[in-house]
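so my prof wants the structure for this chain in the tokens format not the other one, which i didnt know existed until like an hour ago. anyway here's the sequence
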Amino acid sequence: MDLLEFQGKQFFAGFGIPVSEGRAVDSVEDAVAAAEAVGYPVVVKAQVHVGGRGKAGGVKLASNEDEVRTHAQNILGMDIKGHIVRILWIEHASDIAEEYYASFTLDRSAKKHLGMLSAQGGVEIEAVAAKDPDAIAKVWIDPVEGLDESTCRAWVKQARLNPAAEDGAVDILLKLYRAYTEGDADLVEINPLILKPDGSVHALDAKVTLDNNAGFRHDWGDYELTQVRDEREQAAHDKGLQYVGLDGYVGIIANGAGLAMSTLDVVNQVGGEPANFLDIGGGANADVMAGALEIINNDPRVKSIFINIFGGITRGEEVANGIVEALSRVDITAPIVIRLDGTNADQGRQILEPHLSDKLQMQPTMLEAARTAVALAGGTPS
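here's what i got, hopefully its the right format
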């Protein structure tokens, strides 16, 4: 779940990270009132789930009411890379001496958290990495051991931040790591992290991606309200399904995120294009399967459906019964290919056998099922 900037700053503030005073508004008059409340000069910022706001004209400095009114009128309703601006963040403008970059995310290959810090902030970190990789200081953190002050201080020195910023940067980085771990985030990023003329260090921007799987531990209702989803994703969300819409033509249903990702990979491998990522989790009963099939069936781009199930705790015969009942509830237009393996898979296949036809096929392996699904969709499997 990606947060808007103002939500990210509120998230950071909850962990004691200093951020600029500001107000989130959705009208011109509220923007003017917010500017009066936080004090001029202010920055009027578009709130969208995409970068490049400044280049698109979505970030403007205002010194008085007329300027706030003009900028708010121009930015509200603006289309920034397909995202319509409906919320503005009115923030007291900060004096900036220097700009830095800081972030934490997960390095899956190393099985550790990765911190990145650079004295070159305010620009895309990808550009910094391409131009001068040595400008980014990295630290890998064992999740069990965590990040201590001495490691953090050495990291700040390695990044060659201004010595005047060292104490403030160390303090913020330790709090940012807490926000990342205790807040169940996949990514926390401050760009820029600024040194102000008075020597204080301050988060001027906030990029936060939260781990949806940890939502049960938190109250993220307000964050959910600002999520932007297409019709397919919203319908899946309403049914409690993990779904991401893609641009292909082979609909995917799998139980488990890892298997779903592997299914996308194998469809690509045989020359097809997945239409979605859909993880039904550990449950494959009739209600869950019917909901999944309904979501995919409503996507006009889907030409075939690949159901890839590996029974673990959920047994194969339960999965098969769920599929059969779901098919009786949903009028499917695209042909379906099923691969069923794992616990009691033989029993599950026996249940499915009487229902097989040209529109409902079963294959013994994931690779064969992927090839069949691509062929049924009109593609040429490799």
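also thought this was worth mentioning. The mean pLDDT is 90.
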